[in-house]
Amino acid sequence: MSQFFQIHPENPQARLIKQAAQMIREGAVIAYPTDCGYSLGCHIGDKAALEKIRTIRRLDDKHNFTLVCRDLSEISTYARYDNAIYRLLKHHTPGPYTFIFNGTSEVPRRLMHPKRKTIGIRIPDNKIVQALLEELGEPIMSSSLILPGETDPMMDPYDIRDTLQHQLDLVIDGGFCGMQPTTVIAMDSESIEVLRVGAGDPSPFE
C-alpha cells in the first residue's frame, strides 16, 4: 500500500519533502506532480526501482527515460550541448519541455537509449518538484505516468492511488497540474527537431 502525501503546490511542507526525498534514496518509486501531469520517479542509480517503472508502464529497453533536473548547471553534468543550445535552454527553462540530448558518461547506461545513447532532460516549472530536487541534490530518474494503452499522463492523484497503490511506494498529491504532455525537442545532432508538440510552444525550436 502506497503512502499518500498532500503537499501544498505553492508552499511545499519541508517535513514532507524531506520524507519523500529519503524514500527516493532508499529505493522508493513515487508518483509526483510536474507542470505537465503526474510522473513516476526514482533514484537515478536504483536499478530495481527503474525496473518497477518499466513494469508499471510496460516499457521496452528502447524507451528514453528522462532526468528531471533542478537547473542548467545540473543538466551540463549529464548532457552534451553547445553555447547556442545553452542560450535556448536558458530562455525556455523551467518549462513544459523535454529535451533529448547525447548523454555524458555520468548517465547510467541503462537510462539511455541503447543505440543512440541519448537521454531526456527536463526542468519542470513546479515548486514541489523543485523543492524535492533541492533536497535530493541530484536529478530524479523519471517517466511520464501514462498507463499502457493511454496517450495522456494521469492527472488525478486519487485515481493514481486507487489504480497503482500496490505498485508505488508514495503518491504525492500536488493538486491539478496540467492536461497536456511536454513538448519534446531532439537536440542530439547538428539540427534541432520537434518530436512531439505538447504544452510548450514549439516555435522557438523550429
TrEMBL record:
Residues 14-200 form the YrdC-like domain. Pfam families: Sua5_yciO_yrdC. It comes from the Bacteria. GO terms for molecular function: double-stranded RNA binding. This is tRNA threonylcarbamoyl adenosine modification protein (Sua5/YciO/YrdC/YwlC family). It comes from Marinomonas communis.
